[in-house]
Amino acid sequence: MLYPVQNAFRSILDLSGLWKFKVDPQKIGEKEKWYKGFDSKLDIAVPGSWNEQLEEAGLLHYVGTAWYYKKTVIPKEYSGKRILIRIGSADYNSKIWINGKIAGENKLGFLPFEFEISELVHAGEECEIVILVNNELNHGTVPQGISSSQYTDENRLREETNPPARFDFSPFGGIHRPVQIIATPLEYINKIKIDTKITGARKGEIEAEIEVADSSNTDIVILISHGGRILKNAASIKNSKVKIKTEINNCVFWTPENPFLYDLKVQIIKDSQVIDEYNLPVGIREIKIEGNRLLLNNKIIYLKGFGKHEDFSTIGKGLFLPLVVKDFELIKWINANSFRTSHYPYSEEIMYYADKKGILVIDEVPAVSLDIRFVNDETLQNHKEYIDRLIERDYNHPSVIMWAVGNEPNIVGAEEYYNGSGKKYWKDIFSYTRKLDTTRPITVPNCTRAGINDPVFEFCDVISLNRYYGWYEYPGNLESASNVLSEEMDIIFNKYKKPVLFTEFGADTLTGAHSTSVQMFTEEYQAMLLEKYIEVIRSKSYTIGEQLWNFADFRTPQHFRRVVLNQKGIFTRDREPKLAAFKLKEIWAKKVKTK
Ligand code: GCB
Questions:
Q1: pLDDT digits (tens, 9 = 90+) for 103-125
Q2: In angstroms, rounded to a whole number, what is the distance separating the alpha carbons of residues 289 and 365?
């Protein structure tokens, strides 16, 4: 599914703004035909989560079904075009009706989906859109859900959160990315897959695989803008697909220092006329693991950065472009070069911005805290569909350097995970992912509880570790923490002989809390802990980077461990630097000596 573009052949009508809103805790809406339109005193802004926007209506912790309703007019110029409704993401599942008729249903959150609605609307006429969104999770969904009674049954009363969640971020509900009505020509470009190669010291290659739909007897032309020159390459389409390779001399490769993007234009030509066009920024780069090193364009690259979240006051998980710009400015300010999209796919706008700003991204599917005891066929199916759709969405981004196909499986420490079922599950997931992308390394961050025998290690290209010694274990004791850390790293490396990346380490920190002693929760303690970890990580010859937890404070479900927010941010939730930010800025300014 292509990201929408506006050009002479394609149009976008953006429906961001206020929608009518109604919660449906009893799930009576479908029976009462709310999909034909409804009245309500509540409004909601799209994009945005309902939780904080409508806190005063009692929705801060609401998990269940809610309805959205908006009227619009389909532009006259959409006449004779293929018309679609596209939603950047709605968490977690949703159903769409147009003019009272069902347009489609989507089961996966955090990813875009679209339905053709040409038959349901008329250009130049009013159209009514109703969207049902539900944010409930269960054993078969990804991420998996958990109920209050399950905590009781498992005798885990002190672990229970409200709302119940298996993960440490608020399960915000809502339409989180833009809703758009888009128009394309009837014969159209359907897919573009880009592969790039470095073929010489200053030579590169772009291979574009293009798929067209509902079109016959057409030609494809590719135009690549290149330092004022335009390279042109053409081919005829057979069986609706074609591959075109273009060699580029004096090629500028994409790097964090110079994130150079070529402007690629794909056109379908019929009877000498252009009938559809799509524009795409393309960065030429290669990523690979060689021995214990991560190489970008055949040069060692060391990752410095964060695990992040899409989370902000009031808007929740909604796309908020000023925040995207601010976060990338902060990433640059602190001299970081990367982040992980913990624990789900981020908006497409963030991915394009990472390409533009030269920030390296580990792209993650929402298989967070997978509990093997409750995995069923549906879980595996949904997990694979996430991988499929994420790779399809993000394959072309030069910024994406690695896939994380999960995070911290077996955080509950279940024995069953090691009896072969964990291995079988991950073997399947890894081989599925490798078939879809042979160019990028794959990982799954491991947690202390899953330990050194985690079956993911066997399949990962990169060993990713999340460790909280000095915090959850050995609290306030940085000496023990660093000793245990160092020993465990060596044990893991010696066992698996793969490069090690730190994907999480950190300490909750209250802004304004200070001490002259070693004291948890103070700004000094966070700075000390991070510095200690970085020292240990860099003392090993097999480490490829340090991404700490977390970029900014973020909202979590209620639990006595959290004072409203997870406060491990280097920046506060509203993006003010804590003391550690200045320390990191200094550490990250210096070149890392890789052994
Ligand atoms: C983890 C999780 C992350 C949590 C973090 C914490 O291991 O991956 O989602 O927020 O620990 O702060 O406990």
A1: 999 999 999 999 999 999 999 99
A2: 21
